[in-house]
Amino acid sequence: MKLFIDTANLKEIEEASHWPFVCGVTTNPSLIAKEGLSQKEIIEHIARLIDGPISAEVTAEDYDGMLAQAHELYKIKPSNIVIKLPMTIPGLQTAKRLYEEHIPTNVTLCFSQSQALLAMESHATYISPFLGRLDDNGWDSARLIEDIVTLKKNYGYDTKIIAASIRSVRHVEEAAHLGSDVATVPYKVLKKLISHPLTDSGLATFAVDAAKTAKITK
Ligand code: E4P
Q: pLDDT confidence of 218, banded at 50, 70, 90?
């Protein structure tokens, strides 16, 4: 399963750009709003840091507006920009149109199997089911991933599944276990993925023992 970082924070992205397991970035209007720069400035900067898919979200609500914004964002770096679109009829119309123009898309805010089906039928490149927000509201996010993976298999859709709204290591492990193509993960959770108390204590013991060996000269 591929891992993207889910942030618009340039410091976090700069650090993650040196990690061999992070290969893309997703942003959204709320993440951008925290940073105090325009969306264009942030996406341009990210495009200099990461050579992988970078999701940049449109904010217009109508088809013409979304299409115009999509073309502006795509121009920033055509080899990497993925246009993030809302799960609405105009959003899916834009997904279909951008597919015809060979511009990749990520349909966001997916909370049900039927929404995923519509995005796949509209030729979205990616579909983003939101795990954390579902669980926060008492639904079963693992079941949704399982259902979308089944849909994909049943009909051979090319759309890739991005497990989004990740809150924990468990979400990432579950998404991988169930066959999600990608998980987009906040910086803090990415850091937790590599840590384990037994790794830490094992390393501490090895360091003490290595120091003992270093004292032996012959
Ligand atoms: C995905 O692309 C979104 O940016 C993100 O995962 C939203 O997560 P949240 O529920 O933590 O806001």
A: low
